[in-house]
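User: Hi! I'm working on a homework problem where we have to compare a predicted structure to a textbook description. Could you give me the structure for the chain below?
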Amino acid sequence: MPSPSWFFRHDGAAAAAYVAGDDGFGAFRKVSRQRGKANPDEHYRQVAEVYKAAVDRRLPPLKAIQAQWNVSRADAAKYVKRARELGFLGWPERRGVPGYESARQAVGPGS
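Assistant: Happy to help. Predicted structure tokens:
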């Protein structure tokens, strides 16, 4: 979980939630998985929701995912890619700009 100062700089509602002992993105809890096994689909549904919430709040979505699951940027990007592949998250309209609205793969691997 990010430090309280991160919340205060980026989102007042998240700051209030942090102070109250809740996470900044609602009731997202880590979905357990066995060591060496793939994450269940529910994990990628939650990744998509955190991504969407961050984009809607104009926050960097990968940083939100990194903070939520305490993972590296590379792992956060892998989570997003898999959420898109499973259909939980749309593709951005163009490369390098966060987004999730496009239903088809306008920007994807190799584009």
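For your comparison, note the following. Residues 93 and 106 are 6 Å apart (CA to CA). The helical segments are 4-10, 12-19, 41-56, 61-69, 73-85. Good luck with the assignment!
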